[in-house]
Design brief:
Strand content: 15-25%
CATH class of the largest domain: Mainly Alpha
Number of helices: 14
Largest sheet: 6 strands, antiparallel
CATH architecture of the largest domain: Up-down Bundle
Helix content: 40-55%
Number of strands: 19
Length: 520
C-alpha cells in the first residue's frame, strides 16, 4: 500500500487542479472558450480589390522616375496614364529618350519599357503583377489579423480563400458593428500636394487650376472647419494623382493631445519612408500637404519646414474615432480596399442549441458505454468508467489551461477520444483474460496484461496523433479545434489507462493477498 501512496496523491492532485480549471470564477466566467458555431458571432467573406495595389505601385514608379530624373539633372517627363498598369513618359523637346531608358533599367526593373511615339511606354510585367496580387492578399490577411487581435477578439479565423478572397470569423464579438467597420476600413494613408485653391464645390476647385494641371489632379472631399476647429461642412481639394508617400512608409501611430486638447494622431515613418517624406515636404514649403485617408482628406496643413521622421494627423475626431484610426494605421494600412461578398451573423441561440444537443449526445453515449462495459467486464468495467471520467476531466481542464476553443468538431473530438479511451482499456482487459486462460495467476495476468498491451496501444495512438498534428498544422478554425481535443484526449487516455487503471488494480488485488479470482 505504501508504494501506492504517491500514485494516489498524484491522481488527487490532478483531480483538484483540473476541476479548479473548469470551474467558472468572477475573473474567468468562461473557463473554456467557445468557437463561432457555439458562441455566435460574425462570418464574413471579403474580396480584395488587388488592382488598386497595382495602380499604387505604378504611382510609386512614376514618382521614382521623376525623382531619379531630377537627381541626374534630367528634366521631368510628361506623364500620361494609360490604365492601371501602364503609363507613358514623354520627354521635353530636345531631351533624348535614352536618358529615361537608363533610369528605367536601373530603378524600374519590374516594368517592360518600349518606344511609344516620341516617348516611352512603361508596362508593369505580368509576372510582377501576379506576385503583387498574391502579396496583396497575404498582406491583407496579416493586417486584418493584427487589427482583430488588437481588439481582443478571441480565436478569430482569418484565412485566404481562392485567389483574392478572405474568410473572417469572429466568435462572440462584443460590438460587431465596430469590429466590422474597422476590418473594412482600407486606411490607405496617402500624402499628396494640394494644387489650386480649396472650395465648396468641385467646379470651383477646377476653375482655379491651370490648363496644364487639369489631367494631373483628382478632386477629393474634405472637412471644412471653423475658427474653433469644428466641422462646418464639406470642402473640396485638388491633389496630385501620384502618391509620393503612402501608409506603407508608416512605422507607428498613436493618439495624442492637440493644440486645444483635442485628440490627434501622431505618426512616425520607417527608415525608407522618412527620406521620401523629407524630400516631399522640403520641396514644397509654404504649400498645403493633403493627408488623405480612404480618398478623403482629413487634414491639409501648410508645410512650414522640412519634416523627416514624425508628423501629426489632425481632424474632427472623437476619442474613440482617433483610437480606432490609430489602431488601423498602427496595424498597417490595407494594400487595397475590400468588398464584402458574404456576411452572416450566427446567433448565440444556435450555439446554445448545439451545446445542448452535443452534451445530450455525450451523456447518452456515455451512459450506454457505462452499461455495456460494466455488464461485459463486471468489476473491471467500473475501473474503466472511473478512468474514463478522469480522462474527460483532464481533457476539459487542459483545454481551459491552454485557452483552446471548443467547437462543434471539438465536441466530436471529445466523443471520439472517449471511445478510444475505452478501446485502450478493452485491449488491456482482453490481454488479462488471455493470460488467465493460459493458467497464470491473477497478479501475473494483471502485470502481463498491462505490459504486453502497452506496445500495441502506443502504436495505435501514435498514428492517430500524427494525423491530428497534420490537422492542427494545416487546418483552420473548427478543424484545429477537433485536432486539439483529439491530441489532449489521446495523451489523457494513455495516462488514465496505464497509471490510474493500473493503480486501481494494484489496490484491489494486492500481491500480498495472493488473489485467486478477478472480476473481469
Amino acid at each position: 500500500m505504501n508504494r501506492n501512496i504517491w500514485k494516489i496523491a498524484l491522481i488527487l492532485a490532478v483531480l483538484v487542479i483540473f476541476t479548479a480549471a473548469i470551474i467558472p470564477t468572477k475573473n474567468r466566467p468562461e473557463p473554456i472558450r467557445r468557437g463561432l458555431d457555439l458562441k455566435g458571432g460574425t462570418h464574413l467573406v471579403m474580396q480584395v480589390n488587388v488592382n488598386e495595389a497595382v495602380r499604387l505601385e505604378v504611382d510609386q514608379a512614376i514618382e521614382t522616375l521623376k525623382a531619379q530624373a531630377a537627381r541626374n539633372s534630367v528634366p521631368a517627363p510628361v506623364i500620361r496614364r494609360v490604365n492601371d498598369s501602364t503609363f507613358v513618359a514623354t520627354p521635353p523637346a530636345g531631351v533624348p529618350v535614352a536618358d529615361y531608358e537608363r533610369i528605367a533599367n536601373d530603378y524600374l526593373g519590374a516594368f517592360e519599357v518600349s518606344r511609344a511615339g516620341e516617348g516611352l511606354q512603361f508596362t508593369y510585367t505580368t509576372a510582377a503583377a501576379a506576385q503583387l496580387r498574391r502579396d496583396t492578399v497575404a498582406q491583407a490577411v496579416e493586417t486584418i489579423d493584427n487589427r482583430v487581435n488588437a481588439l481582443g477578439v478571441t480565436e478569430p479565423v482569418i484565412a485566404p480563400q481562392g485567389e483574392n478572397r478572405i474568410v473572417i470569423q469572429l466568435p462572440g464579438v462584443d460590438d460587431p458593428a465596430r469590429v466590422k467597420e474597422i476590418i473594412k476600413t482600407t486606411a490607405q494613408l496617402q500624402f499628396r500636394i494640394v494644387e489650386g485653391n480649396p472650395a465648396d464645390s468641385e467646379e470651383a476647385v477646377r476653375s482655379s487650376l491651370g490648363a496644364n494641371l487639369q489631367n494631373e489632379v483628382v478632386i477629393l472631399p474634405g472637412t471644412r472647419e471653423d475658427e474653433l476647429g469644428r466641422a462646418a461642412g464639406v470642402q473640396y481639394y485638388a491633389v496630385r494623382k501620384t502618391v509620393p508617400v503612402s501608409g506603407r512608409d508608416l512605422k507607428n501611430a498613436r493618439v495624442q493631445k492637440g493644440r486645444i486638447g483635442e485628440p490627434v494622431i501622431g505618426f512616425s515613418l520607417t527608415p525608407e519612408g522618412a527620406p521620401k517624406f523629407g524630400e516631399l515636404t522640403g520641396n514644397n514649403i509654404k504649400r498645403q500637404l493633403a493627408i488623405v485617408l480612404d480618398n478623403r482628406i482629413v487634414s491639409a496643413p501648410v508645410i512650414n519646414s522640412r519634416i523627416d521622421g514624425e508628423g501629426v494627423i489632425e481632424g474632427t475626431f472623437t476619442q474613440q474615432q482617433a483610437a480606432d484610426l490609430a489602431l488601423v494605421l498602427r496595424s498597417g494600412s490595407l494594400p487595397a480596399s475590400l468588398t464584402t461578398l458574404e456576411e452572416r451573423t450566427v446567433g448565440p441561440s444556435l450555439g446554445r442549441d448545439s451545446i445542448r444537443q452535443g452534451v445530450m449526445a455525450t451523456i447518452i453515449g456515455f451512459a450506454a458505454l457505462v452499461v455495456v462495459i460494466i455488464g461485459y467486464y463486471k468489476g473491471a468495467g467500473i475501473n474503466a468508467v472511473l478512468a474514463l471520467l478522469l480522462n474527460l476531466l483532464i481533457l476539459l481542464g487542459m483545454m481551459a489551461f491552454f485557452k483552446a476553443t471548443l467547437t462543434l468538431p471539438g465536441i466530436a473530438g471529445i466523443i471520439l477520444t472517449l471511445g478510444m479511451a475505452v478501446d485502450t482499456n478493452v485491449l488491456v482487459f482482453e490481454r488479462i483474460r488471455e493470460e488467465l486462460r493460459e493458467g497464470r495467476t491473477v497478479r501475473a495476468s494483471i502485470d502481463n496484461g498491462f505490459t504486453r498491451a502497452f506496445g500495441t496501444i502506443i502504436d495505435t495512438h501514435l498514428t492517430t496523433i500524427i494525423s491530428a498534428l497534420f490537422l492542427f498544422q494545416f487546418g483552420t478554425g473548427p478543424i484545429k479545434g477537433f485536432a486539439v481535443t483529439l491530441l489532449i484526449g489521446l495523451a489523457a487516455s494513455v495516462f488514465t489507462a496505464f497509471f490510474v487503471s493500473r493503480m486501481i488494480f494494484d489496490i484491489m488485488y494486492k500481491p500480498a493477498d495472493r488473489p485467486q479470482a478477478i472480476s473481469i
